[in-house]
Amino acid sequence: MKRLVLIGAIVCLVSLVLLAPLAGCAPKPKAEPTKTLKVGMMTPTTGVAAEKGRVMGHANLDAIGYINKELGGVAGHPIEVLWLDSAYDAAKVVTIVKRFMDEGCLLFTTASSKEMSAAMEIANEAGFPGIACFSSPVLYRPPKHIYGQTPDYGDDALAFANFYLKNIWKGKSGRPKFALHLLNNPTGYGARDAFKAKANEMGIEIVSIDEHAATTTSEMESLTRIKAKNPDVLFISSTPAPTAVIIKNAYELGMYPGITIGCAHASFTKALIDIAGAKVVEGVYGTFPTVLWGEDVPGMAKMTEYCKKLHPEDYGNMDYITAWAQSLIVAEILRLAVKNAGYDALAKGNPRSWQIVETQGFHKLKNYNVEGLQGPVSYTPGDNRLTKYNRIYQIVNGQIANPSKWIEAPLIEYEKYEWFGK
Fold first, then answer.
1. Of 17, 27, 118, 121, whose CB has the highest number of CB atoms within 10 Å?
2. Rounded CA gap, 308 and 315, in Å?
């Protein structure tokens, strides 16, 4: 009996020795999938604003790729993006926002104020928070669930007007005459409302207000009328393609050089120079809420690396910087929400999750520096502009150059004017 037990023990031992090398070849249990944080992003990658939307879509997704691959996502959770092309079409925007909500996104972003103006009614009603990269006062006055990443078009108009009064007009007698040429959507209306609210107080005379469509191919008629009014300034709040048409027509009519031309930030990118031609736009001023390419700020090297590797044709276009920064801000909002409420509170992507993202993410933003790419981001109760800082630039030798110091835009409570929104 003892002999049989001994033989059995020896057989077991030999079997273990023979099988040991195979243990490492056995299939390992699959790692449990990492829980993601889902967001919706839309850009007008096709359509009449594609010169902006295409670049911004690239940057949004490039930055999310960087955050996931190199930063480990947000607190270990990858950001999952549902990205869709709005084609700058209001009807498509509404459908897109409904899909974002139905598919469990925690927040959403738009590139343009036009997109957000179409999205805001359904988003505000549902309590679904959104961030517009380029914004207009009507999006968040009075403040609800929509936020502006950068100063709005009203802020642009007043920042440029103050710059002009201080640095170009320089206390001449009389009131400088401003002519406004505005895109016929919130991109233009934000500037219109700012001048309507503050022009008299600033000592500015508005001699004309003209509107144009994003598809315009000639503004000779409107500019001929404007020329007859002998303005000192032509201020344009639009996108690059129509702005290029307006400036080229002003050049052909002999208005420019001569008058001062200022642009709101939606148009003031490399695309404007490429479309209009460097000679035509030489000396034109514009606002923009980010640094220039190549400036010595912490986030420049990594952004440049990704842009040149993935979309080299976008290098030098400042719209890329704004959208890359937008994705960084999204990540910071999610980081704060996870830190303050935990992942499980966000997991369902439902109205309760949206409320938590807003109160524990958006509302906890405080001096986030966005790696130096734009002004610092903070939430101030009653003011849904996350950044209040702008710069004035000028086109010199075919390049956007000569940045001013950062200019802080004061809060204007437009809803207190009885004409606002009508």
1. 118
2. 6
